[in-house]
Amino acid sequence: MRTSIATVSLSGTLTEKLTAAARAGFDGVEIFENDLTGSPLGPEEIRERAADLGLTIDLFQPMRDIEAVPADEFARNLRRAEHKFRLMRRLGTGTVLVCSSVSPYAVDDDALAAEQLHRLAGLAQESGVRVAYEALAWGRHVSTYEHAWRIVEAADHPALGVCLDSFHILARGSDVTGIEAIPGDRIFFLQLADAPQMALDVLQWSRHHRCFPGQGDLDVAGLVRAAVRAGYDGPLSLEVFNDVFRQADAGRTAVDARRSLTLLQESAGLTAPPAPVVPTGFAFVEIATADTARIAPLLTALGFSRTARHSGKPVDLWEQGEARILLNTDTGSHRPDPSLTAVGLESPDPAGAAARAESLLAPVLPRRRAPGDAPLDAVAAPDGTEFFFCVTDGPGDGQRSGDAGRSGWTGDFAPTPHTPAPIGITRVDHVALTQPWHHFDEATLFHRGVLGLRPHASVDLADPYGLLRSRAASNEDGTVRIALGVGASPTEDPARGGRPQHVALLTDDLVTTVRRALAAGSRLLPVPANYYDDLAAHHEFAPGELETYRELGILYDRDEKGEFRHCYTVTTGRVFFELVERGGGYDGYGARNAPVRLAAQHALAE
Amino acid sequence: MRTSIATVSLSGTLTEKLTAAARAGFDGVEIFENDLTGSPLGPEEIRERAADLGLTIDLFQPMRDIEAVPADEFARNLRRAEHKFRLMRRLGTGTVLVCSSVSPYAVDDDALAAEQLHRLAGLAQESGVRVAYEALAWGRHVSTYEHAWRIVEAADHPALGVCLDSFHILARGSDVTGIEAIPGDRIFFLQLADAPQMALDVLQWSRHHRCFPGQGDLDVAGLVRAAVRAGYDGPLSLEVFNDVFRQADAGRTAVDARRSLTLLQESAGLTAPPAPVVPTGFAFVEIATADTARIAPLLTALGFSRTARHSGKPVDLWEQGEARILLNTDTGSHRPDPSLTAVGLESPDPAGAAARAESLLAPVLPRRRAPGDAPLDAVAAPDGTEFFFCVTDGPGDGQRSGDAGRSGWTGDFAPTPHTPAPIGITRVDHVALTQPWHHFDEATLFHRGVLGLRPHASVDLADPYGLLRSRAASNEDGTVRIALGVGASPTEDPARGGRPQHVALLTDDLVTTVRRALAAGSRLLPVPANYYDDLAAHHEFAPGELETYRELGILYDRDEKGEFRHCYTVTTGRVFFELVERGGGYDGYGARNAPVRLAAQHALAE
Questions:
Q1: Where does the pLDDT of residue A466 fall: very low under 50, low under 70, confident under 90, or very high at 90 and above?
Q2: What secondary structure does DSSP assign to A349-376, as a single string?
Q3: How is the beta sheet containing A281-288 ordered, strand by strand?
Q4: Bridge partners (DSSP) listed for residue A581
Q5: Sequence-distant (≥ 6) Cβ neighbours of residue A477 within 8 angstroms
Q6: Do residues B288 and B254 both lie within one domain?
Q7: For residue B398, what are the domain limits?
Q8: Structure confidence at residue A494 (pLDDT)
Q9: β-bridge pairing B425-435 and A281-288
Q10: N or C end: fewer C-beta atoms under 10 angstroms in chain B?
């Protein structure tokens, strides 16, 4: 099916919006009246510009407060409509959206509404225009699609049909199966938007919090399926009012939108992009740093050994158990400080994962390849982090052959002599990536749709200087966990040197691991004594247990499934490490302790 | 009555919060548990720090999910409470807040709640602590203050009373007169917060959108009056959860908070600061600019003449009708571009206005005075704009004497030879001031409380790159109008060189004025042709009228009271001018046309 996007969903001038929509691969646009009114281009010029970009203009919107009004009011409305139909002819668009009236003059009279819409459709037909009537969820008398359809049916004019808007329908909790009773050729248009579930006035909810399908909680795919079953074959069009998209770069938003639409089509069974490939573990985490003087001692103190060096690039492999960290000193001058730049995901099908990513408009990175190197498929996430789809050959810990004939990425590394001194770390538990301020939903959809991870619930974390939002995504068995975080304000964007990222390392016995780390010279984040007083008030501990935590600076959490112990290193550059032990089936990230951690990090930074 | 503020209302570390509260003149604080837990200072150190700052610790908060639970759960709760009571003794605070339970284990059994609260109060009393029980608006079984009071009454323990929270009470629309039935000495605490009226889930509403009294829509003063009539004589304490305050500078927020509390006390009849002095007009608008090369020709083309020069400073007075603009070239190097820096308000009592401003913590500016100068009282608004309280001597238009013995500010100016060439401007209609991102509510309260203006409704304006919020404040007859605006993101802060400010100039005949302005060389903002097509669709005009608007770039609006015609100059530095004609009783600012104006300004800036 053809894809379309409303200009109101993108920021900038109309020209910028058209360009962004075309570049992201949309087939058409809905033009919002304000965008046209504010444009220095005349309707004919806009029509040409769209055609040059390969875009059709699928809808002009909206006309409001037309129907079920007194005769003199309706006469004025027809006059207005005539102006707009003329404009549409110049613009080359054949369908106009008419929203159900919110006018105080509108009366609750379906027969009058039908009669006036019939007359409007007649006028439209003369200009070659079709009228798509849509029930606003807050329409004065008409607020459900069933009601709008009854009126359209009664009006009985070939130039009159309905427009279905997923937000207006799903926000009211309407049953979408009724859509199948509408003849497909009378559904003139389908507008799609998702939204997070909110107990908010529906008008405010709609105007400020719509998002692209898959980024909210509404079953947009179910509605699309119903419309398709009804026989609808017009465009799938995104119409999203969102305060964030109004500010974000139009090109970026359009790509996010188009990705969302592909995933929606996949959910609705309309397209079949390459199947998702769920990663099975972390192959590596890469830290870029101009020199290793600061980070190498830190890794050593955490029990890592430098086991191998890349055959062609200044990249060292550090290992402990199944935890692998690459230190890349080929950073250019713009990243002097250690920062987390890439994540290797263990993939059962790297080529398949890359193909899916590409079909979902993820920027595919040039393969990093030197003569003899294993090719590595990689894409860039919305925050700029590079994700590599990898196969790691066993065995680990520097015992590899360096045989260039092997399939895994480790084949490119030549072992270096080293003396392992592990402290009990078994693997990477999770990585925590700070997202650009405006792009949290985009990131979540990316991690779900492109990387095949399952998003968990979003939580708010109280920092001394604002609320942070955090949302994890993981595979089913928890061997890949990525915590996406977003700062309290745009000034905390990663690009502006905002909040640090971190790598959490798993151990089966945190107390022993921490003792060894401290003995090896690790500097851990100090935890205030008040925290342990609070912990003592909340939980009972075995004799000596709490004292051990206090002594070592270990944080503690408990839920119905198990226990969580964790602690943090101090921050180096833009990176810090967390050491974690998961007891029982604890599936969280110690969110309860985040305020204490954040306060301690601020205190140390001062 | 004593004043207090909850630490959760301010950003930063506990130390920063205590310092900010003390500096703003609060008598005490409520300490929020998270602030203490995350602090590197122990309870005794916090107690000392507060005492050094002259602050009492009036409340420790909160304890949750205590009452009406099964026996084993309650035993755990008492254990937790015992820990916290010990902590409170170390902290030196005598009252603890207990919120009505939201626990899934809580049962709907008032007798059990009363019995358990009685036991809790007994335990508290042993530690010298009183328990203030508060109904959360979303409490599982207890959600109204009347219900909380019934349980407290039944529990019948001297160490148990109620805490009244204006948000929880008013958000539910409860009748506050019932408060007067509670004996004053059983009201242990009074927490005050306002909030904008929102149809939002009350928990989300409370957590993110509370604001200081007078910044929202709740009748907080009415509740305070009821509590005082009941005999309450404890602190008036602000407890505001707000996403903005979490990020804003604590010192600034504390001043805003303290100002709000003074205005609340005034509304409730508890204090009488110097009475408000409502301004009666604009005395002048001051534009600072390193040199006048860009702005002087623009003023000339708008029909202004340089009529006088200040006797001791590089400040020129430009006049037309009753519109007066000061060009100040004594700007220092940090403001090379023309920017709107000061507004002179015609005041019936400048000294009284300044006294009120000072009592409301407005930063009073050093009087600008040279030998022989009239002293001018001035304060700084939250956005940095300087407001002068003035008396302007007549007659205008450069006919003044320069006599140093006169009372008005114009006495300091010496007339300069000039040839008036007015284009029909009669006076300043309004000034539009861009506010810092986080400080819109603070600004509104300032303009109301300190300057004595009446705030109008807030409107959203669609800019191509985000929604702007705008809210006007005016005196009764509309001779002083200030439009406060805020950009779509923090990057649009005035301090960061964000959106321009503007001065709107009134004329009785815009068409004639614009023709003269154009003839004199004014450059006006071009308006897209599409705008006039849209206007033609919406309104009927006299023959030729629309064509005139189109020719001259005049925007048009109409409401039930009258008509509004306006147009804009291009922007110079950080300032542009608007020319407006108000027909009939039109009382707005042409918000409907703002998207077109904003799009045109963006187009021109590119």
A1: confident
A2: -HHHHHHHHHHTTPPBPPP---TTPPP-
A3: A377-380, A386-390, A339-346, A281-288, A323-328, A315-320, A305-310, A413-415
A4: A565
A5: none
A6: no
A7: 281-605
A8: 53
A9: unpaired
A10: C
Domain count, chain A: 2
> A109 and A65, same structural domain?
yes
Distance, in Å, from the CA atom of B412 to the CA atom of B51, rounded to the nearest integer, reads 49
Chain A residues with CB under 8 Å of B84 CB are: 537
Query: Residue B140 CB: number of other CB atoms within 10 A?
Result: 17
Omega before B422 within 30 of 0, i.e. cis: no
Query: How far is residue B501's CA from residue B573's CA, in Å, rounded to a whole number?
Result: 10
Question: Is A275 a domain residue?
Answer: no
**B126: its two tokens:** 């042993």
Residue B494: the pLDDT is 53
Give the whole-angstrom CA distance, residue B291 versus residue A296. 56
- B365-376: pLDDT as tens digits: 887 655 566 678
Other C-beta atoms lying within 10 Å of the C-beta of residue B442: 27
B275 in any annotated domain: no
Are B7 and B140 found together in one domain? yes
SS (H, E, C) B490-530: HHHCHHHCCCCEEEEEEECCHHHHHHHHHHCCCCECCCCHH
Q: Which of B208, B232, B267 is the last residue of a domain?
A: B267
pLDDT (tens digit, 9 = 90+) per residue, A522-558?
A: 999 999 999 999 999 999 999 999 999 999 999 999 9
Contact predicate A161/A133, CB 8 Å: yes
- Do B263 and B305 belong together in one domain? no
Partnered with residue B563 across adjacent β-strands are: B558, B583
* Those residues with Cβ within 8 angstroms of residue A101's Cβ, 6 or more apart along the chain or in another chain: A64, A65, A66, A67, A68, A69, A139, A140, A141, A142
Q: Which of B13, B467, B598 sits opposite A599 (nearest CB)?
A: B13
Q: Which residues of B touch A84 (CB under 8 A)?
A: 537
Let me know whether A262 and A287 are in one domain.
Answer: no
Residues of A in contact with B247 (CB under 8 A): 465-466, 488-489
> Strands A413-415 and A187-192, how do they pair?
unpaired
Rounded to a whole number of angstroms, the distance from the CA of A589 to the nearest CA of chain B is: 18
How big is the A-B interface in CB pairs under 8 Å?
Answer: 143
Q: Is A595–B12 a contact, with Cβ atoms under 8 angstroms apart?
A: no
Same domain? For B84 and B219 the reply is yes
Residue A377 included in any domain: yes
Q: Give how far B81 is from chain A: nearest CA, Å.
A: 8
Type of residue at B564: F
Which of A298, A337, A336, A320 lies closest to A569 in space, CA to CA? A298
- At A401 the pLDDT is 42
Instruction: Identify any residues that bridge with B460 across adjacent strands, giving them in sequence order.
Output: B469
Judge if B255 and B289 occupy the same domain: no
Domain CATH code at residue A372: 3.10.180.10
Q: Pairing relation of β-strands A305-310 and A413-415?
A: antiparallel
* A-chain residues near B13 (CB < 8 A): 464, 599, 602-603
Which residues pair with residue A566 across a beta bridge?
A555, A580
ipTM over 0.90: no
Q: Is B412 helix (H, G, I), strand (E, B) or coil?
A: helix
The domain that holds A129 is classified in CATH as 3.20.20.150
Instruction: Judge contact between B477 and B281, C-beta under 8 A.
Output: no
Q: What is the mean pLDDT of chain B?
A: 92
Last residue of a domain, one of B267, B294, B310: B267
| B247 to A528: CB separation less than 8 angstroms, yes or no | no
Residues A403, A409, A415, A418: what is their CA dihedral angle, to the nearest 10 degrees? -150
Say if A514 falls within a structural domain: yes
**Tens digit of pLDDT for each residue in B323-368?**
999 999 987 656 678 999 999 999 999 999 999 999 999 998 887 6
**Residue B213 to residue B318: CA distance in whole angstroms:** 41
**Residues B263, B285 within the same domain:** no
Check A465 against B12: CB less than 8 A apart: yes
